[in-house]
Design brief:
This protein starts with a helix and ends in a 5-residue tail after the last helix. It has one domain. The protein has helices spanning about 5-15, 20-25, 30-70, 80-95, 115-145, 150-175. The chain is built from six helices and no strands.
């Protein structure tokens, strides 16, 4: 079974082989190397957009749960939701606007082919983590229908933990992009 990140990678590679002209100039070594990196950069961008969409979907569900809690007047939970939503929105935006896994020809910091592959694999694992966050948020959503404050509070903690783990892992991606992690 092909996972979602592999499907994205294959589609980007397939889309890059569209034209007859591209097939011919792929035999030019400089162009071929550039094109390969460009494909990887685009693939990484598409993968990160998918991560963003998974996180955004979970965030929207979380906001729906918060609205349900507000309507039920469970005031003790409001600050917990506010903090969680703020942190969740912050990491979601960081994913959307993060650096590409590619450096241009004139960039000061160069990212080579093996590093691009490691970056893509790292981002693939982030997609898996975003799916887990979505599952935990769905569990919170299901639990919120009972309007049991202690149950909702414990589920909020689980979502906080999942988001925090994602955030820590994503920070390592940024450190890697800045050359601090080998």
């Amino acid at each position: 079974m092909v996972n979602e990140s592999e499907r994205i990678k294959r589609k980007a590679e397939k889309d890059s082989k569209r034209t007859f002209i591209e097939k011919i100039i792929r035999y030019i070594p400089i162009y071929n190397g550039y094109k390969t990196k460009e494909i990887r950069r685009e693939t990484d961008k598409i993968l990160r957009e998918n991560i963003y969409m998974k996180l955004k979907g979970a965030l929207d569900k979380l906001k729906d749960v918060k609205d349900r809690v507000v309507e039920a007047n469970l005031q003790e939970l409001w600050p917990l939701f506010q903090k969680l939503i703020y942190n969740f929105e912050t990491i979601t935006q960081r994913v959307l606007y993060s650096d590409y896994g590619y450096s241009g020809f004139f960039s000061v910091i160069k990212i080579n082919e093996p590093e691009l592959e490691r970056m893509y694999n790292f981002d693939s694992s982030l997609l898996d983590d975003a799916v887990v966050i979505g599952e935990v948020v769905k569990e919170l959503c299901d639990a919120s229908y009972d309007l049991n404050a202690s149950k909702i509070k414990s589920m909020i903690k689980r979502v906080e933990d999942a988001v925090s783990q994602f955030e820590e892992k994503f920070a390592k991606r940024e450190e890697y992009m800045n050359g601090f992690i080998e």
